[in-house]
Amino acid sequence: MTQTAITHGLFHLAIKTADLAATRAFWTGVIGLREIARPDFGYPGAWLACGQPGGQAIIHVYAGGPAMGPEGTAPRGTGAIDHVSLACSGYHAYRERFCAAGLDWREFLVPGTTLWQLFVHDPSGVQLELTFEGAVEPGAPPDLSDARRYRAGQPFFDADTYPALAATLSGAPADARHA
User: Fold this and answer.
1) pLDDT score for 69
2) Mean pLDDT of 89-116
3) What is the C-alpha to C-alpha distance for residues 174 and 88, in angstroms, rounded to an integer?
4) Residue 52 buriedness (CB in 10 A; 0-12 / 13-18 / 19+)
5) CA distance 95 to 128
6) 49, 57 in Cβ contact below 8 A?
7) Distance of alpha carbon 96 from alpha carbon 129, whole angstroms
8) Is the pLDDT of residue 174 over 50?
9) Contact yes or no for 24/124 (Cβ under 8 A)
């Protein structure tokens, strides 16, 4: 009997962080994921899911010992992975969230398509691409001025100027943020 090998989609990605509270605040308060129950692995972390009912955890965050690299610190950036892309709606609402959180971002129009994109970084320097169907997004198209235009291969994450994201940004009860 021959089995067929099938890939069904991305199950999750895991992010190492030196600042669990800020990372939770970014992914829940800015990006809009929700925290769900996480098994006790013996070290701190969070599982974050899409907001729809039954949405599965797509981001796993871990801190503490397992997040530390050989130098004893959590790594920053995406390494060989350039970015993580999420399908989204509400282009201008995300821009407003970025402004409110003090985040830097970039914008792009995918050539030959109706796709609009926003690029932003989480507190650990992981670059995100939020992709929108521009044909159904209200409001002005992406700002392609020199200050806002995304250019592949030109980084714009600066750990020294990244805003301190308050844990309360996530909207989660204080005790839930420290699990």
Assistant:
1) 82
2) 96
3) 27
4) exposed
5) 13
6) yes
7) 16
8) no
9) no
